[in-house]
Amino acid sequence: MSFQATRPNLLAAPAVAWLLAFMVAPCLLILGYAFFERGTWGGVVYTFTLENFERVFDPLYARIFVNSARIAATVTLLAILVAYPAAYAISRAPRSRQPILLFFAVLPFWSNYLIRTYAWIVLLNREGLINNVLRWGGYEGEPLSMLYSEGAVIIGLVYNYLPFVILAIYSSLSRLDMSLVEASRDLGAGPIRTFLRVTLPLTLPGVAAGGVFVFVLSIGNFVTPALLGGGRFQMIGNLVYDQFLTANDWPFGAALGMILIAIMIALLTLQARATNRASGTVREAER
Amino acid sequence: MMGFTRQNAGGRATLIVVFGFLYLPIVVLVGLSFNEAGLPTVWSGFSTKWYGALLGNSDILGAAWNTLVVAVFATVIATVLGTLLAIGIETRRRASTGLEALVFAPMVIPDIVLAVALLSFFSRLDVTLGLHTIVLSHVIFDLAFVCSIVRARLKHFDYSIVEASRDLGASPWTTFWRVTFPVLMPAIVAGALLAFTLSIDEFIIAFFTAGAGRSSITLPMQIYSMIRFGITPEINALATIVMSVSAAALLLSQWLNKDQLR
Q1: How many structural domains compose chain B?
Q2: How many beta-carbon pairs under 8 angstroms link A with B?
Q3: Which of B113, B174, B226 to mutate to test the interface with A (most CBs of A within 10 A)?
Q4: Domain A57-286 - what CATH class?
Q5: How large is the ipTM?
Q6: Does a structural domain hold residue B46?
Q7: Residue B251 DSSP SS3
């Protein structure tokens, strides 16, 4: 590639410098804060301590962690269960129509997150659309209070991240070698067995990519629990928010943030491994 | 192959349900913004009065102006940096894992973590918070997205035209502006439009890096505080406008990107 007499590193330098200055340095700073004590009136006292990490195991906070992980796992599972059939249907649509279907599946993802969450308040609240529809349908009991519940938070998160999961799974499906599926069918495997033994394993990288993304963004989410959960129950994201803006305990907030980053890195690493293994399987299958 | 039509029917039904789920909440919101009564309880006729109400609200107009200023500055900086970065990465002799991770990170890092990190960083350095700190922060993820779109274009780039230009005696500078740039242009504009949308819609990082006071409130921050006070017809109208702007930018971005792949 003799494209360049110009120097690639020089071209990349300004952006790299920007990311180092405004992303890496701030993250390293709070990594440092996580190991210091909080001052009496807030602020950071530069005395080394592991207390911020120990506090995570305090039952009060441990419960929030477990809850967040449970909600994030539920959201991930639901999002995959809805996204897979949708991505499959798009990948089986006529070739000329696939890009437009995909575009409209992803379009909401790029629009305002707050507004998409707010739309569910409009649907779910006691005077909201769903209760009104029920009333027109002849329902006469008390209006259902669906908002400000764990269910509402889960629906909101699935709704917000679904487009990305569809995109990730679709990109795996569109690379799927259909001759492998046909071979399985020709050799007498039924459609379900073919799906479980051929299609699904080969598209697992897409499922993993979408799943990791949803899990990471859900467990660290702050807007959806605040708006659809009504602040009644907290997730890790809300806890971080509180430490910085209300409790004024930056070191503890920083430690919580670092744990989120650690979860993210661990999952991304696992996902990369799974993807490598899957592409190994493909090579074997092709041999 | 008997099962094919049946499979198609199943696929169509799936897509109708999923697209219904994705778009119904948005359609309801847009519909309500034109409802004279403003509430979902009754439909009392078509009206644009809630849009009129927005025009008289100086808080919202001020926030909209701030949002625009932030988005324009962040987009311009991110487009330049992101494009150069994309060319830099794609013309390297060897791929660099560290560089890939650095560029990928802004797209996956939980925004609350980046937000508190930036707040800590700016206050540690005693930087006064305001619109400028929001711009500095937005460039981080904006440039990552611009870079990924331009890189996708570079993967299909025919480097022989660059060589031809050089062989014919054009300088690297002339070659860039007369050959490389025009070919990359649709992707650069598409990336810029995406960055612009992301910036207009971003809430959490802006919220943490804006500082106190009304002077640097952006539209998403304004919407957030309105939502916390409850549902009002004005929010529906404002939401409709914001989503229309995003959708228009994205449609244009997609159209440019599609055009280039032909």
Answers
A1: 1
A2: 249
A3: B113
A4: mainly alpha
A5: 0.91
A6: no
A7: helix
